[in-house]
Write a structure and sequence with these properties.
Layout: H1 2-6, E1 20-21, E2 24-25, E3 30-31, E4 42-43, E5 58-59, E6 64-65, E7 72-75, H2 76-89, E8 95-97, H3 106-110, H4 119-125, E9 144-146, E10 154-156, H5 171-181, E11 188-190
Parallel strand pairs: 1-7, 8-11
Antiparallel strand pairs: 2-3, 4-7, 5-6, 9-10
Bound molecules: zinc ion.
Protein name: ANK1 protein
Length: about 190
Amino acid sequence: MEEVRQNGSTATVWFGDEPVFGHNADRGAWLHPSSECGRDDIPVPPEKEQDSKWRSTVDSRRASHEPKVGKRYKCWCCRWLREVQRHHAQGEVICCAVSNIFNSDWVELYGAGSSELSDADAEAHGLPKEVFRNERPKGWGQGRIRISGGFGGDFDRKAPVHPRTKKPLGVGCRWERQALDGMGFPVYAFFMP
Ligand SMILES: [Zn+2]
């Protein structure tokens, strides 16, 4: 992040050990919209007044538990949306990267990779397909990509599968892309940050 910030700014939010709401609820039936969801810093309503967005755990980087009625939690998606809007309001051009391969050797060093998901892989894993207002680049989530100028050789476009969850990595990144696609201004996407 330090390296990225030297060349621009980022809209990353990070809550560490604090439990927060996230991008889906109700066993995946509810997806966080591109606007505020109404859970951020709002007391959790009594169970019988809870609609689908409340049927979710609150998660930190270490633990996951049921939210307590009456308690306030942050929603990382709302916080992130506000952060993006704030950057846009300052006149910045909003860009997103579909990998965290900042330097080519990060693949080896940190297991950095792509979060692109092809339609075939979405079906195989029971995940939502990545659909945007504009057409996706050819070969989305498949094969290898060569960066202009041949920088660092070429890279896998398929999101690596997490060894424990068996799901393609980058679920939060894919939600962020959908949310950006729903915003009222252009967002430019690149493979590498
Ligand atoms: Zn929210």
